[in-house]
TrEMBL record:
It catalyses: 1-(5-phospho-beta-D-ribosyl)-ATP + diphosphate = 5-phospho-alpha-D-ribose 1-diphosphate + ATP. Its cofactor is Mg(2+). This is ATP phosphoribosyltransferase. Feedback inhibited by histidine. InterPro entries: ATP-PRT_HisG_long (IPR020621), ATP_PRibTrfase_cat (IPR013820), ATP_PRibTrfase_HisG (IPR001348), HisG_C (IPR013115), N-reg_PII-like_a/b (IPR011322), N-reg_PII/ATP_PRibTrfase_C (IPR015867). Its EC number is 2.4.2.17. The lineage of its organism: Bacteria, Bacillati, Actinomycetota, Actinomycetes, Kitasatosporales. It comes from Streptomyces lacrimifluminis. The keyword Cytoplasm applies. GO terms for molecular function: ATP binding; ATP phosphoribosyltransferase activity; magnesium ion binding. Residues 49-203 form the ATP phosphoribosyltransferase catalytic domain.
Length: 282
């Protein structure tokens, strides 16, 4: 049975469970459940603190985990990313009161408050900057106002939390992060159950980012049309009853669907339809 760690709280928890559900796995019904077995799919899910997931996975007792890229780096655990999941996207940045610092080189002798001590200490060391790091569990934006630190390093998504605290980011982003699937470094890469799990999640990612597009066009316009809708491998082209016309079917990125429909219309394609993809295996 495949043993998988899933975040039990925070920003990663809801989207991770939703994605697993979409991939056909049973998920817990109540937020207090710590583990559930999905016998049909031969998978056991363990609901753990996002911060602890890389540690469990690196121990080898759990096969796979879903966590944040930043949390993996912060943990220093012997685990690696095997699939990016496209949600919980954020950057990790330094911030302070306006005028405090312009870049990492200005941090020498200052104190940085963060919940991600592993990332920050390594980043400072890599840049040869001698600053102190104080660990706080959360709400680090308040640390400056309360005199615990001059600077913070934290997750930034919209920047609202920083603005509300009167703080500004400075310097280069320390890292980018998103939700990822991780495995222990050195684990058997070709394990069929793991591969099947990854294919299912990839299917969800594709179904979320692509739509199916169908249209009719004149044979003379086919080359131009196919250039607009190359599909993942190659589009399906079928003859129509009316001579000189073909029907074309291809997957296109959902974000570009409207523009592609306009462009197809302009070259004479008609009956242009898009339909949602509910699931897929590439
Ligand atoms: N506002 C946000 N937008 C996007 N991703 C976020 C946001 N806040 C945290 N994350 C991501 O979620 C992960 C942090 O998980 P965590 O469970 O600590 O979230 P949390 O919401 O801060 O919960 P907690 O209350 O335990 O601090 C990290 O990978 C981080 O990049
Ligand atoms: O840029 P924003 O969109 O404002 O998002 C970033 C904020 O979200 C997270 O906080 P969270 O709500 O998890 O609280 P915490 O600090 O207690 O972890 C993070 O620590 C930042 O404070
Ligand atoms: Mg948090």
């Amino acid at each position: 049975m495949l043993r998988i760690a899933v975040p039990n709280k925070g920003s990663l928890s809801g989207p991770a469970s939703a994605m697993l559900h979409e991939a056909g796995y049973q998920q817990r019904r109540e937020s207090k459940e710590l583990r559930i077995v999905d016998p049909e799919n031969e998978v056991e899910f363990f609901y753990l603190r996002p911060r602890d997931i890389a540690i469990y996975v690196s121990s080898g007792r759990l096969d796979i985990g879903i966590t944040g890229g930043d949390l993996l780096v912060d943990s220093g655990a012997n685990a690696e990313e095997i699939l990016p999941l496209g949600f919980a996207r954020s950057t990790f940045r330094f911030a302070g009161k306006p005028g405090t610092a312009a870049g990492i080189e200005d941090l020498a002798g200052l104190t940085v408050a963060t919940s991600y001590e592993g990332i920050v200490a390594k980043h400072l060391a890599d840049h040869g900057v001698d600053a102190s790091v104080v660990h706080l569990d959360g709400a680090v934006e308040t640390a400056i106002e309360l005199g615990v630190a001059e600077v913070i390093a934290d997750v930034v998504e919209t920047g609202t939390s920083l603005r509300n605290a009167g703080l500004e980011v400075f310097g280069e982003p320390i890292m980018k992060s998103e939700a990822i699937v991780i495995r222990r470094v050195g684990a058997e890469a070709e394990e069929p159950k793991v591969q099947q799990f990854l294919r299912r999640l990839q299917g969800v990612l594709v179904a979320r980012t692509y739509v199916m597009m169908d249209y009719d066009c004149r044979v003379e316009q086919l080359e131009k049309a196919v250039a607009l809708t190359p599909g993942l491998e190659s589009p399906t082209v079928s003859p129509l009853h009316n001579e000189g016309w073909v029907a074309v079917r291809a997957m296109v990125p959902s974000k570009e669907a409207q523009r592609i429909m306009d462009d197809l219309y302009d070259i004479g394609a008609r009956a242009i339809l898009t339909t949602a993809i509910h699931a897929c295996r590439l």
